[in-house]
Design brief:
By secondary structure, this protein is an alpha/beta fold. The protein has 2 domains: 6-343, Rossmann fold (3-Layer(aba) Sandwich), CATH 3.40.50; 345-495, Isoleucyl-tRNA Synthetase, Domain 1 (Orthogonal Bundle), CATH 1.10.730. The chain has 19 helices and 19 strands. Strands 1, 2, 3, 4, 10, 15 and 16 form a 7-stranded parallel sheet that branches. The chain has a 4-stranded antiparallel sheet with strand order 6-5-9-11, with no helix packed on it. It is elongated and about 90 Å long. The protein starts with 5 loop residues before the first helix and ends in a 41-residue tail after the last helix. The structure holds 5'-O-[(L-methionyl)-sulphamoyl]adenosine (MSP). 5'-O-[(L-methionyl)-sulphamoyl]adenosine is lined by residues 21-24, 32-33, 35-36, 63, 243-244, 246, 266-267, 269-270, 298-299, 306.
Length: 526
Amino acid sequence: MCGISNKFKNMYKTSYFITTPIFYVNANPHIGHLYSALIADASARFQKLCNPSINVIFSTGTDEHGLKVQRAAEANKVSVENYCQNISNYYETTFRKFNISHSSFIRTTSKKHNVSVQHFWKRLQPHIKKGKYNGWYCTADETFLSEDQIEIINGMRVSKESGRPVEWTEEDNYKFDLRPFKEKLVDWLNHQERIKPKIFHDILLREINYLYEISLSRPKHRVNWGLTVPGDDTQTIYVWLDALVNYLTISGYPEIKMWPPDVHICGKDILKFHGIYWPIFLLAAGLKLPKQIFVHSHWKVNDEKMSKTKGNVVDPIEASHLYTESGLRYFLLREGTAHSDGNYSDLKIRRILNAELADTMGNLLNRCCGKAINPNMIYPDLDSIAIEKLLLDSKFKELNTRLNILSNTVGNHYEELNFYKGIDEIIATLQCCNRFFEYNKPWQLAKNDAIKLSCVLHITLETLRISALALQPIIPALTNKILNKLNVKSRNWNHVTPSWINKDQYDCPKYINKENNILFKKLVIN
Ligand code: MSP
């Protein structure tokens, strides 16, 4: 496989199982939810480009039970079933619009999920006991919190994590002790790649010193919207246990087809559930543990936390009317980093999209189609003598080096789910090509050096082809447009190599299509 380093080759997979969290249906999706799905989508797309016959499970869906959803439906005066159905549908519509390529969309209200949860509960039974439980319950976080996870603001006790109120709760329920599993949990955590990025691994290592007994159910009279504990219709299964088991349901549990997942994607607010509760439940049930948990930080809007009360929650579909779906996908994956919060701002989005999609990429493509330098819209063949000469030129040397290693560098960043770093490499390559193009003054070559002009055009079009191929996981619809315009047929990852290197695999386009001249329409900046 040409252009793929050893490290990268070792990661070549035949199956891939990636999940997003399932989303609460107490409100419509926002850009943060879309971001979780985009990381998984870009990763699944990248794996398919590397190996088109790979078996990919990419799951997402909606988390529909629990007090939070029950109260949201009551507040909206709608039956809880209809409420869930509507919001779950809106998630599906949103994901479809943004080309999320999930292979399954699970709803926790589905029958097959109930079967799976009931089965899982029975496997945990030897570790479950009934008794009194009391503590502070935070409905927004759907969890009991200890004193040190709570603070007092304006005389009210709130969760430090979400800033939302907690309620003192005393009730009979089923309990599960996390403490006996500490050693095995530490063994699992002691793997370099387990929790990424490292800052979140360190957070978990501190948290495991404070394992405790958790409540696994709630009395039906308090929480009726949920699955019933097997053999006890007075109790509802704790919504987080119900939700986490979705990852087993989609793998066919109790008849598992593919397990364990390669990566669970989750936001930093739900790290404890994925990095402590979930592996411990799996240990207790005698099942294999996930290979990796990839944790991402949050999106703020104009440097503020998104919240309904502030009225700054961004609906992805509404945002797409301003920036297009590809524009929003590009911005979120370009600017989102896992280790620290991202900032969503209208001006920043417009600047980035204009500079990178409209100018650096779109303009370069337009210039290759200009009447003065390419009247017949050809994708010229490469002249081997002309390229030898060009190799002496320092502007081409830099571009050539970048192009030769692009599939490796970008591939490694994508493999690590660091999409922003991969995009950065691609944009730097396109900028380098813009300098190369400018330096060679093709408008003058058109008058006196047809051979060199063809060579410059070939190299520039190759850079566009390779960049578009490498951007496919990020902006599939927009890259499809470029690749169609360039008549590129072979679109896998091993085609992310220039024609003069990857001669065997290369099937060179001959013409550029006349349609679709504007790749990305410039956005107005006031
Ligand atoms: N239902 C639980 C997950 C159960 S998974 C077994 C849940 N749902 S959620 O709808 O509240 O959040 C879903 C995902 O969206 C989480 O990964 C969360 O971190 C993420 N985000 C919520 N707000 C976010 C931002 N502002 N920015 C980025 N991601 C954010 O938790």
